[in-house]
Amino acid sequence: MQVKALDHVNIVSNDLERSARFYAEVVGLTRRDPPEPLEPSLIQWMHDGEGRPVLHLVSKDRRDSANRDSQPGGPTGAVHHVALNCAGHADFIARLEEMGIAYRQSGVSGIGLKQVFLTDPDNVLLELNFHDG
């Protein structure tokens, strides 16, 4: 077996609609209904600019083997944050300022990386990485 790439991150949400709006309006992902037999009222897939469903948002009300013990904002063990490779740093900072969303910035100057950290509505820490300045 060979791992080719990270496929997606699954986030359990207290309010699926609120979380989907956040990831669409703030982060810029595209919201789409999941494929059948998954229920759009309980699951939304958030797609990146290449059309990949990188985040699966799942309502806390969905009870199946995959989500049986999950709680929004609950302990996630060793998982600390979700990092996304992004473009358009200046525009993104302006959008956060306009929307009044709290964030902090950092960077790794040796590789020209700018980082923006913020939390989603269910307290998931996001690291948004910009290599484009």
Automatic annotation (TrEMBL):
User: PROSITE patterns in the record, alphabetically?
Assistant: VOC (PS51819)
Q: Which Gene3D superfamilies match?
A: 2,3-Dihydroxybiphenyl 1,2-Dioxygenase, domain 1
All copies of the VOC domain together span 5-131
Transmembrane segments annotated in the record for this chain:
none
Upper classification of the source organism reads: Bacteria, Pseudomonadati, Pseudomonadota, Alphaproteobacteria, Sphingomonadales
Record protein name field: VOC domain-containing protein
